[in-house]
Amino acid sequence: MSGLLDRRLLFVTGKGGVGKTTVAAALGMLGASRGKQVLVCEVEPKGDVAAAYECAPAGFVPRQVAPGLHVMEMDTEASLREYLRLNLRLPTVGRIGPVARAFDFVANAAPGVREILTVGKLCYEVREGHYDLVVVDAAATGHIVGQLAAPVGINELVKVGAVRSQTRWMLDILEDARSTGVCIVTTPEEMPVNEAIDLAGRLEGETGVHLAALVANRVLPELFSRGEEEVFDALGEPEAVAALGAGPGGGSEAAVAEVLGAAALAVRIRRTGAGHLERLHAALGASCPLAYVPYLFTRADGARAVRQVADALAEELAE
Amino acid sequence: MSASSSPRAGAARSPLERLLGSREVVIACGPGGVGKTTTAAAIAATVSVRTAAKVLVLTVDPARRLADALGVAGIGNTASQVPSAAFSAAGVRQKGELWAAMLDTKQSWDALVSRHAPDATTAAQIFANPIYQNITGRFAQSHEYIAMERLYEIHAEGTYDLVVVDTPPTRDALDFLDAPGRMADFFASGLLRWLVAPARSRLVGLASRPFYQVVDRILGTQFLGDVTEFFLLFQSMYDGFVSRAQAVGSLLGDARTTFMLVTTLETVPAVEATRFAAALADRRLHLGLLVVNKVLPASLADPEAVAVAEALQGEPAARARALLAALPGGLAGSSEEMVARVLAEIGRSFASFGLVASRQRELLAEMSAAHEVTATVPHLASDVVDLRGLLAIGRHVLEGSVD
Fold it and tell me: Which of A82, A207, A246, A316 is deepest in the core (most CB within 10 A)?
């Protein structure tokens, strides 16, 4: 897993709600802490990446938020303008206003166009070497295949034209396992794990982009070893509950039962999650590394949470 | 909290009664990963048990085990009845019927085109158009529209007393509210007519020349041809589509429609849910149920329990010694050290979950201040994989217990 950050382009995805933005922000932070120039790009601009770093939102033009750490938000129209300016030496921004409007229309109708402008911009940053590492807070599992498959899709739809000739170099970057990888984030829950497994299959079947890592986020700690679990079970017996309640530091049997009940709930929630992670491991463990990020009880989001996730990932990456 | 949810109000009606009094459509919405699909299935199943209604749950992407439980795995657009025997097996007698259907986007689009196309030839041309194939296969926003479109169709058929619809995962939970309007705008736009006009006359006008030059250089003539053909073909269905999209849009605001907003008490989903509730209010849409999922037990905040847990964590060795002294038979034959470790761990875990629970409580209080939370559902230790589990959740939601 140590090679993860040696890639040039990392797409971080996962089912909605699993914390992919936090993981993407943490990977960016880790890269920068290793002296790399890192760009973290949020593909669906909602300001979540900036919020994760607790800084003001960035736009299409990257903004440095910490030494070596840059943030940008994808904007396909701006990406088109940049593309036209750089490649076709076409009219200046002012003159393509109505064209951009019409383009917006075509882009809405013809999927692949918007996607290619997103992926194209990311590949462009990699090709030009503006950054050592580009981390993408990518679309969720349901939408990312469409994005990554866009260069192939465009090749099918568009038989000639400048865009087609542009897709080859993008594919060279995307399909090179040493430079590009997808990092799927999941939680130890049924649907996120299902989607992670499905996505891994679709990545292989529908795109040439390689799966680089799985991150299991919000993993609950194991409370007891097997022997300790026997002790815990025995604690639930009425005499034990009564004895625990008696004496200094004790409490009513109801209060003791509440405390034991909370631990039992924690054990069962963890066990259910562990079952899903075993499923994940069985399905994909052989094809890529699996990193565990512990559940953060203290804080669920913000810069401190990103730092803690980064620390957890650093440990896993070192292995 | 409003009077209707107070247990003391004499005329209090449960969410179930309020729901069935006037509503025929329940749209489940909310952020991703909060249990929307399960909650939608849960209330549909529960209503079918408690009333003599014929209920349909239109689901988008259920977990496989849940789909198996409902018998909808791989059946596509056609609704099928969940056998009454399945309810008997779960220990309940059903007064009504539960039907379930999956949303198949491609199939639904094809049905829509077949309905509105002027003739079979046009329909066939549309089906063959690469742009159309691409839209129905991959166009993310088309899912949102088609879900609402299917709902409209099912409701118009009038087969069911209650339709509960799950909404597809969207980039933004608000997307599907605007989907019908966007679809209507899309086809009604003058830009669209401007775009297809030259192809019709086979003459490129002066006004559109720069656009074609640019598009031609970027995308190539053949692609542009496909796009133009697509729009031309769709224009033949223009009136039907626009009026349909408008009708679908108005169903959202219909007096017979209500929304069920589902969320958890993690910061990001809770904030998104609050925003969503505000958006519903802005659009004058009816929020009938606000369900808060995965709520940790209130006992985590019980001061007496907190004190017990703190003592376990603080002096595990002393507590273990006292405990073993009080139990002549010992504790699973374990050493004092091991018992101390277990006690410390129990205390630590209680404190950790207590932190999360107090954060949940704050968020719940904030949410309740702005909107009436109609039910909380406890954090379950295992997945809901059968009718029994669904009915347990349905009970929480429809009896409106707020813990």
Answer: A207
Report the pLDDT averaged over residues A8-15: 96
CA distance B292 to B304: 26
SS3 helix, strand, coil % of chain B, rounded to 5? 60, 10, 30
Q: How many CB atoms lie within 10 A of CB B86?
A: 18
Q: What are the strands, taking DSSP E only, across chain A? A: 9-14, 38-42, 63-66, 69-73, 133-137, 180-186, 211-219, 290-294
8 Å CB contact of A297 and B139:
no
- Judged by CB atoms closer than 8 Å, whether chains meet at A110 and B223 is answered as yes
CATH 3.40.50.300 residue window(s) in chain B? 3-177+246-296+379-399
Q: Which ranges constitute the DSSP H helices of A129-246? A: 141-148, 150-157, 162-174, 190-206, 226-235, 238-245
Is A256–B308 a contact, with Cβ atoms under 8 angstroms apart?
yes
Q: What is the mean pLDDT of chain A?
A: 88
Q: Which of B144, B41, B152 shows the shortest CA–CA distance to B101?
A: B41
Within 8 A of A232 by CB-CB distance, chain B residues are 342, 346
pLDDT tens sequence across B207-245: 555 666 666 666 666 766 777 777 778 777 777 777 888
The pLDDT of residue B206 is 47
Is B128 touching A (CB cutoff 8 A)? no
Q: How far is CA A194 from CA A21, A263, B13, B382, in A?
A: 20, 28, 39, 16
Q: Is B311 on the interface with A (CB under 8 A)?
A: yes
- Interface contact B220-A161, CB threshold 8 A: yes
Q: Which fold has domain B3-177+246-296+379-399?
A: Rossmann fold (3.40.50)
Q: In what order do the strands lie in the sheet with B80-81?
A: B80-81, B97-102, B54-59, B162-166, B25-29, B257-264, B287-295, B375-378
Inspect the interface and report whether the beta carbons of B297 and A301 lie closer than 8 Å.
no
Q: Is the ipTM of this complex over 0.95?
A: no
d(CA B396, CA A87): 59
Give B149's pLDDT tier (boundaries 50, 70, 90).
confident
Q: Which fold has domain A4-223+284-318?
A: Rossmann fold (3.40.50)
Q: Tell which B residues from 185 to 214 touch A, by Cβ distance under 8 Å.
A: 186, 189, 191-192, 195, 210-211, 214
Question: Which chain A residue has the Cα nearest residue B263?
Answer: A17
pTM, to two decimals: 0.87
- Cα separations in angstroms, B358 against B183, B265, B266, B308: 43, 10, 11, 17
β A69-73/A63-66 pair status: antiparallel
> Do A137 and A40 form a contact (C-beta atoms < 8 A)?
yes
How does pLDDT run across B52-100, given as a tens digit for each residue? 999 999 987 777 777 877 777 766 778 889 999 989 999 999 999 999 9
Between the two ends of chain A, the Cα-to-Cα distance in Å is 7
pLDDT at A63 over 60: yes
Structure-token match 């409490």, residue found: A251
Q: Which of A231, A233, A277 to mutate to test the interface with B (most CBs of B within 10 A)?
A: A231
B226 Cβ under 8 Å from any chain A Cβ: yes
User: How large is the C-alpha radius of gyration of chain A?
Assistant: 24
Token code pair at residue A245 = 């309640």
Tokens representing B293 are: 């999922």
Q: Where are the domains of chain A?
A: 4-223+284-318
Segment A165-203, tens digit of pLDDT: 778 888 999 999 999 999 999 999 998 999 999 999 999
Mean pLDDT computed over A194-219:
94
CA distance B356 to B264: 12
Distance (Å, whole) CA B220 – CA B105: 29
Model pLDDT, residue B196: 56
